[in-house]
Write a structure and sequence with these properties.
Blueprint (H helix, E strand, L loop, with lengths): L1 H55 L1 E2 L5 E2 L1 H9 L24 E2 L12 E2 L9 H5 E7 L11 E2 L2 E2 L13 E12 L11 E11 L46 E7 L2 E7 L8 E8 L5 E7 L4 E5 L7 E9 L12 E4 L1
Antiparallel strand pairs: 1-2, 3-4, 5-8, 6-7, 8-9, 10-11, 11-14, 12-13, 12-15, 15-16
């Protein structure tokens, strides 16, 4: 009789151990999934703050450009100088216990004396890798620049101030390393990379500090003189522009969103420049039109890491006549 009682006790312990393991696993997963959800919400709010600011305050004149340092600073301080929003520390996005930007919590990105934590490659700043900013063109004008792909990548907006440019949007993506409380839930990875993006259409008035780009003009009305016949001007024929010199190119940005920074010498009589892109032995495709006198552009590199991208530039005159293309320049992604 005592032997049967011991057998029942042992069976109950085994059953409890099996059930408890499953219960604790589900509890751990619920805790981690809840914290991940709130962390992503915090990243989304930070991305929204950066995109909203970036869409309103651009820098430069021709072309207008995003203020990358200020956008990243708005993202980092979305919740104040301490950076914490309860679930994720925006001042330490890689979650290694070291400030991404130093030497203190109030440090401003781009300010004199500011220090930066670097990625393992020793070249890329942590904030550049974990706060990614893109200026995208909505070429089909449907309100969604993410479906206007060239070679699998969104189309880059070269100059949002150009009248002929398609509507441009700023996209801010914020990433953060989340360390699971229980390494076995929700996956076997100890660290999970969380991210959230926000896209806003450019709303910049192209004037510093929100002032009008063109000052007001007051005009005195006077009685016009008797009109006289004007001579019909003799039209001046348009001369086909010459091919631009071979452009220079270099890779910029951070993985995986590398860009090719291109520049070339101005061509006499050109009112705009067309940029053509190809990969490998493929044919060239028109990827961007740049208004003169701008002689530079940033174009997204296509393909995977190591893919050779080739670029050519041609000039177009006021009559719409396009000249010959330049020799190609290669930039490796």
């Amino acid at each position: 009789m005592r032997k049967i009682l011991h057998l029942k006790t042992g069976q109950a312990l085994v059953e409890f151990a099996l059930a408890a393991t499953l219960i604790f696993l589900l509890l751990a997963a619920a805790v981690d999934l809840g914290l991940i959800f709130f962390s992503i919400q915090g990243l989304h709010n930070a991305a929204q703050e950066g995109a909203a600011y970036g869409s309103r305050w651009l820098i430069g004149s021709s072309p207008r450009a995003l203020n990358f340092n200020s956008i990243r600073d708005r993202v980092r301080h979305e919740s104040g100088s301490k950076g914490g929003i309860g679930f994720v520390n925006l001042l330490d996005l890689n979650n290694d216990g070291i400030r991404d930007v130093g030497p203190n919590d109030n440090s401003v990105v781009g300010a004199s004396g500011t220090t930066y934590q670097m990625m393992p490659d020793g070249v890329t700043r942590v904030i550049d890798s974990f706060i990614q900013i893109q200026l995208l063109a909505d070429t089909d004008d449907n309100g969604d620049p993410m479906n206007d792909l060239v070679g699998g990548q969104p189309t880059v907006c070269a100059n949002p101030a150009a009248a002929t440019t398609a509507p441009c949007f700023v996209r801010v993506t914020v990433q953060s390393n989340y360390k699971t409380i229980f390494p076995f839930a929700p996956s076997f990875a100890r660290t999970r990379l969380l991210h959230s993006s926000y896209i806003v259409r450019i709303r910049d008035p192209f004037g510093a500090g929100g002032a009008a780009s063109t000052p007001g003009v007051f005009q005195t009305v006077t009685v016009p003189p008797t009109p006289t016949a004007t001579r019909t001007p003799t039209p001046t024929p348009c001369t086909t522009p010459s091919a631009p010199s071979t452009p220079s190119g270099s890779r910029t940005g951070s993985s995986p969103n590398y860009n090719a920074s291109l520049s070339w010498a101005a061509v006499s009589g050109a009112t705009q420049y067309k940029i053509y892109q190809a990969t490998g032995t493929g044919s060239y495709s028109l990827v961007s039109t740049i208004p003169a006198p701008t002689t530079s552009a940033s174009i997204a590199l296509l393909g995977s890491s190591g893919t050779v991208n080739k670029f050519k530039v041609s000039a177009v005159n006021a009559c719409g006549t396009e000249g010959a293309q330049s020799a190609s320049v290669s930039v490796t992604k």
